[in-house]
Every structure is written in structure tokens, then in C-alpha cells.
Amino acid sequence: MFGRFFTPPVASSYFLFGPRGTGKSTWLRDRYPEGLVIDLNDPEEERYYGAAPERLESTVSSHPAGRPVVIDEVQRAPQLLSVVHRLVERDKELRFVLTGSSARKLRRTGVDLLAGRALLTTMHPFMAAELGAAFSLDHALTLGLIPLVVDAAEPESALRTYAALYVREEVQAEGLVRNVGAFSRFLEAASFSHGAALNVSNLARECQVERKVAATYLSVLEDLLIGFSLPVFRRRSRRKLTSHPKLYLVDPGVFRSLRPRGPLDQDSELAGPALEGLVAQHLRAWIAYTGRRDSLSFWRTRSGSEVDFVLYGESGFFALEVKRSSVVHPRDLSGLRAFAADYPEATPVLLYGGRRTLVNGVLCLPCEGFLRALVPGRPLDDILAAVGDRDRPT
Fold first, then answer.
1. Range of the domain at 362
2. How many CB atoms lie within 10 A of CB 231?
């Protein structure tokens, strides 16, 4: 069992959200072996508490004091939140850990996620530093880093069924959309927007639905934590910027499994977006686990200048561009140099497949070494300084 960087709140109740298969249940059982676990993935448990949520009170009252109560996949019985809210108000020492792979149903209950009585935390796919020597960049770009897939005896088969599991168990079972077939087409269409500007009208045409329906599908995609979007960085903007956010699927393996392929599709066409998505996935996890007030965005002007990622906040100000190539071309630095001209306070960095070097004032680092060195809580300046030639791909 690989160690995880996720650190739970010390004394308060908390929600632990994360995509299906990221290891939330496994981690919780290892972390709280003495806890009371209510597994709503079990149909019998779901039926028992769904039919009469007040049964939770008697279950908790018979549980030894001081031990946490874990409710796994709480979105399957969102009415339990009212009972949890009442119990937490009554007993300040009572501690709940509530996991979920979707917040959509929970928000509809009107409980407002316990009105702030529980902290919101997230668990992400594996980071390279969590896997250590077991991390392989090529495998990560092909099969992804979803723990359910990484730990599978047949990772390729597990990855092929991952999206189907989401559609069947989350979308269809919970009635999140009316037309599951149209939503499946939407997932395929969304795979072509991975790492690109998000145009909802274009997505609607691709999956043959109205724009309003496509916008709903997009919100479902994000609520199920299968995808996420990055906003445009706009602080003190000196140029006209694009208005569309950028869309990413949660994992390179998920991106590849959803992307339709044929005889004319080259694997090299997927390598760049897959690598960019892998870096996005790591940066989001690093921000979440570090716990500072940082934001992740991207920058693109209407004239075409672009920077893949802008990290801004308590950890500093960094502009990062990701390229799959092992050679630095002048065009690879054009976006970073334009950004640095507008924001000289930022540190521009190119992550690519070559050696550590400095080109025209831009720090160029091996991407694999950067991912391996990215440890939550470690200052990003220290991480950048630590990545050397020994970390470049062999």
C-alpha cells in the first residue's frame, strides 16, 4: 500500500471528496481501524439507512465514544446529512468522516454540506512522489494514476471499464441526466477538448444536444470529479484575454480511454495533451495537500500568446509551460516571455523532456524530475532548485 500525502483535519469532522477509485475507502480503513464504518456502496446498508435515516442515531449511540464515524459514499443517502448535522450540534466531541465521489446530490438536499460544521477536503489520483521508484512517466501517460487502475491485476481492462462504471453507477443510478446515451457522447466529445479552451456550443454540436443541455452535462462532469476547468488568469491584465476556460479530464488514463481512436490517429497526437493533463493533476493535488491559499489558472491572449499554468498565491507566483519535446525551440518560450513582460514578478518555467538549462531567462527543467520532486508542503522554489539533470528521462 503506497503512502498518501493527504493529511486529514486533526479534530473536526470533514468531507473527503475525490473521483471514484482514488483510494478513499482503503485509506480510511487503514487510518481509522477502530472507527464505525457505514459503507453505502453496500446495497443493504444503502437501503437500511435510506429508508429510515434516523436509524443512524441509534447506531452512533451504541458506538464507543471518541471513535470516528465513517460514512462512505454519503451521496447515496444524502438525507443522512440532516441526522449528522443534528448529532454534531448535540455532541461537539462527535467526529464524522464523510466520503463522496459526487457533491451534486448533496447540494440538492439543502443541508449545505452541514453548514460549515465539517471541513471540505479532497483526495486526488496518485502523485509521482507517492509512488516513488514505482512511478513511470510512460505508464502514467498511458494508463494514468487512478489507484484503482494502478493496483489492478490487469490495468488496461480496469481503465477501459472506468468510464463505464461512472456512467452506469453514478449517472444512471442516481438519475443525474435523462439521456445516458447523449451523456456518453458528451464524454467522448469532451475528450477532444482535454487541455484546450472550452467551447460549450461546439460541444453541444458534437454530441447533438442543445447548448443548455451540454452546459448541464459539463456541470455533471465536474460534480462527479471526472473533469475540471481552469479559469483565465486576469490580475492586472494589460492585454485582451480569451474568455473561455480550459477543460481537463481528471487523469491521462481516463482521457485516453474516452478519446475515440482510429487508423488515422497517431499516439504522438495524444502525448502532449496527456502530459499537460498529468502536470495539471499534480499541481491541483499539490495545492490541495499543501493547504495554502493558492490558485491555479492559465493565461491566453486573444492574439494567441499562452501559458499553460499560472500558480498564484501564498506559495508564490509561477508561470509554467509544458512541452513533450526534448529540445527547446524559441516558439516554446514565446508565451512565457510575453507573460514575464507583463508580470516580471512571476518565475517562468518550461517543463519538457530535456536537460536542466536556462534559455533567455527562462528556467527549463525535465518534466519527469519536476513531477517526482513535487511534494506537498515543500516550497515550490526549493522544488525547482532541486530538479537536476539526474531527473531527466533516460
1. 128-391
2. 13
CA distance 255 to 273: 9
Residues 17, 251: Cα–Cα separation, whole Å = 16
Number of domains in the chain: 2
Structure confidence at residue 324 (pLDDT): 92
| Residues sharing a CB contact under 8 Å with residue 33, sequence separation 6 or more, in sequence order | none
Average pLDDT, the chain: 89
Collapsing DSSP to helix, strand or coil, 64 comes out as: coil
Domain membership of residue 2 (yes or no) is: no
Contact between 158 and 147 under an 8 Å Cβ cutoff? The reply is: no
The residue-averaged pLDDT of 303-327 equals 96
66 and 213 both lie in a single domain: no
- C-beta atoms surrounding 144 within 10 Å: 30
pTM summary value: 0.92
Q: Is 288 helix (H, G, I), strand (E, B) or coil?
A: helix
The residue out of 85, 105, 122 marking a domain boundary is: 122
d(CA 1, CA 392): 27
Domain boundary among 122, 146, 174: 122
Torsion-angle region of 138 (φ positive above 0: left; ψ -120 to 50: alpha; else: beta)? alpha
Residue type, 233: F
Residue 145 and residue 110 share a domain: no
Transcribe 324-354 into DSSP letters. --SS--GGGGHHHHHHHHH-TTSEEEEEESS
Is the model's pLDDT at 153 over the cut of 50?
yes
Q: For 368-387, give one letter per residue: b (16+ CB within 10 A) or e.
A: bbbbbbbbbeeebeebbeeb
What is the full DSSP assignment across 105-133? HHHHTTSHHHHTTSEEEE--SPPHHHHGG
Task: Tell me if 21 is assigned to some domain.
Answer: yes
As given in the structure block, the three cell numbers for residue 106 are 448533496
